[in-house]
Amino acid sequence: MLLNEFTSPVQIGAGTVTQVAQVETLAALGVDLIVSPNCDPAVIMATKKAGILSFPGVITPSECFSALNCGADGLKFFPASLIGQENLIALRAVLPANVPLYLVGGVSPKNFASWFEAGAYGFGIGSGLYKSGDSASLVGQKAESIVLSYDQAKNNK
Q1: Contacts of 88 (CB under 8 A, 6+ apart)
Q2: Which long-range contacts (CB under 8 A, 24 or more apart) does 96-103 make?
Q3: Looking at residue 7, what is its pLDDT?
């Protein structure tokens, strides 16, 4: 599919960014957002200095506030399965209301609704979408099912 086929703007990002040198390379390529598996202040600050959206991986309140103090645009909770919905509710109560919270690792169409109720903004899906050896057709079917489940959960929140 060509980018001009989309009806709304598309943002291009990079994930699993753990080093400032990677941020610099990605900035030169013109990415719009960077996602990290961890909360590294140097990576967050380099990302923001480059004018790129930053979504670091966090799990504790200290990591959340450290990331936000460094300029993070949103938070990626990874692995989400370790924090659970009750903990997200507690974190949402102390985090700024306008900060988008994304859950990755342990989320699926089966629990989108409960994560939304707990304060999630969105999700990252990895192995639920693709496992080694999956055909393009199977990945497409999984993607359609995931999007449908997401839309239903989002509309019912």
Answers
A1: 77, 101, 103, 115, 118, 119, 120
A2: 96/68, 99/68, 99/74, 99/75, 100/73, 100/74, 100/75, 101/74, 101/75, 101/77, 102/55, 102/74, 102/75, 102/76, 102/77, 103/77
A3: 75
Task: Return the CATH number of the domain spanning residue range 3-155.
Answer: 3.20.20.70
pLDDT for the residue 8: 78
- Pairwise CA distance, residues 18 & 69, whole Å: 18
Q: What residue spans define the domains of the chain?
A: 3-155
Does position 4 have pLDDT exceeding 80, yes or no? no
Instruction: Give the containing element (helix H, strand E) for 58.
Output: strand 57-58
What does the pLDDT average to over 33-49? Answer: 97
Query: Could you identify the residue written with the tokens 């960077």?
Result: 34
pLDDT tens string 56-83: 999 999 999 999 999 999 999 999 999 9
DSSP-derived secondary structure for 18-49: -SHHHHHHHHHHT-SEEE-SS--HHHHHHHHH
CA 119 to chain centre: 14
pTM of the model: 0.89
50: which 2 tokens?
Answer: 């480059």
